[in-house]
């Protein structure tokens, strides 16, 4: 496994691999790797190409009052996990390598899909995500990019960017990896105190309550949401920011679920903000 901190060095390495006829399989991350990331990496590594990950906590996608400063960082642990999971190349640039003047003048602005739900509660977040991904895609030149469905709206935003800007990459969306009690794995989970960690599992319990009601044949979004609410109301430590049933591509709220519809949630537990989703539209 080789580790690069600069753009010219990683470009040179990947150009060599491409000349040798290897495909580039790319997993962008912000580090603090966990089993969710490792699943993406193993899926990428299983394709037979060169497996590349980036480890970069992107300042552009954090709002001024968000957790950029306290976001977990542990590059040594990440490198050990990456090696074990079969990574060939790690690109871990310092912020000054990605943003030499501290900022970017040119941004990718995702449009209405980037303004709702996550985009509504985190203004500028998806422009930050899309901009750093556009940069990383140009630096790495991947054939395929592996993304987690845990961040379902992010997958949709990046899919739209790839289509709108004709980027020659295929996005591969992978299932959400969960803790044994159902909590979606997240780098932010390690910032939960033990009692908060226990309460946080109510988020998944609520989504599951809605999903099993949908499986019983309930198609009304309002009734599915009230099932989920009933669970969350028993856990006041989980402070819901949004809870919606949405269309899987537009992320606009729906009244009646159809195939692929998602229940999406964002909630604070203590000072940690968590998001999750699951499919409720099975028909
Ligand atoms: P992050 O480091 O949080 O930016 O995540 C990097 C990638 O890993 C994104 O595509 C995430 O959606 C994905 N990811 C994070 N957590 C999980 C999880 N629990 N299951 C599957 N994918 C995940």
Can you characterise this structure?
- The structure is a single chain.
- The mean pLDDT is 97.
- By secondary structure, the protein is an alpha/beta fold.
- The protein has helices at residues 7-19, 35-45, 75-85, 95-98, 118-121, 125-140, 152-164, 194-215, 221-233; strands at residues 2-4, 24-29, 50-55, 89-91, 144-148, 170-174, 238-246, 262-269, 272-279.
- It has two domains: 2-174, HUPs (Rossmann fold), CATH 3.40.50; 187-276, Pantoate--beta-alanine Ligase, Chain: A,domain 2 (2-Layer Sandwich).
- Strands 1-4-3-2-5-6 form a six-stranded parallel beta sheet, sandwiched between helices.
- It is globular.
- It starts with a strand and ends with a strand.
- Bound molecules: adenosine monophosphate.
- The site of adenosine monophosphate (AMP) has 17 residues, from α2 and β5.
């Amino acid at each position: 496994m080789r580790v690069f901190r600069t753009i010219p060095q990683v470009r040179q390495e990947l150009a060599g691999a491409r000349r040798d006829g290897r495909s580039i399989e790319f997993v962008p991350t912000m580090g603090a790797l966990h089993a969710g990331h490792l699943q993406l990496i193993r899926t990428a590594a299983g394709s037979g190409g060169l497996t590349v990950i980036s480890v970069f906590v992107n300042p552009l996608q954090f709002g001024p009052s968000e957790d950029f400063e306290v976001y977990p960082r542990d590059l040594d642990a990440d490198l050990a996990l990456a090696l074990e999971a079969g990574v060939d190349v790690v690109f871990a640039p310092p912020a000054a390598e990605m943003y030499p003047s501290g900022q970017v003048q040119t941004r990718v602005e995702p449009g209405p899909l980037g303004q709702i739900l996550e985009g509504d509660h985190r203004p500028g977040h998806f422009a930050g995500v899309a901009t750093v991904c556009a940069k990383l895609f140009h630096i790495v030149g991947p054939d395929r990019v592996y993304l987690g469905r845990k961040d379902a709206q992010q997958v949709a935003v990046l899919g739209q960017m790839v289509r709108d800007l004709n980027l020659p990459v295929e996005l591969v969306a992978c299932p959400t990896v969960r803790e044994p009690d159902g909590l979606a794995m997240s780098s932010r989970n390690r910032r939960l105190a033990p009692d908060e960690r226990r309460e946080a599992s109510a988020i998944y319990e609520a989504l599951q309550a809605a999903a099993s009601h949908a499986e019983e044949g309930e198609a009304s979004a309002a009734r599915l949401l009230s099932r989920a609410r009933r669970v969350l109301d028993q856990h006041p430590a989980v402070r819901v920011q949004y809870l919606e049933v949405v269309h899987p591509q537009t992320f606009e709220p729906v009244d009646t679920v159809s195939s692929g519809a998602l229940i999406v949630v964002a909630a604070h537990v203590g000072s940690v903000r968590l998001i999750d989703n699951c499919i409720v539209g099975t028909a």
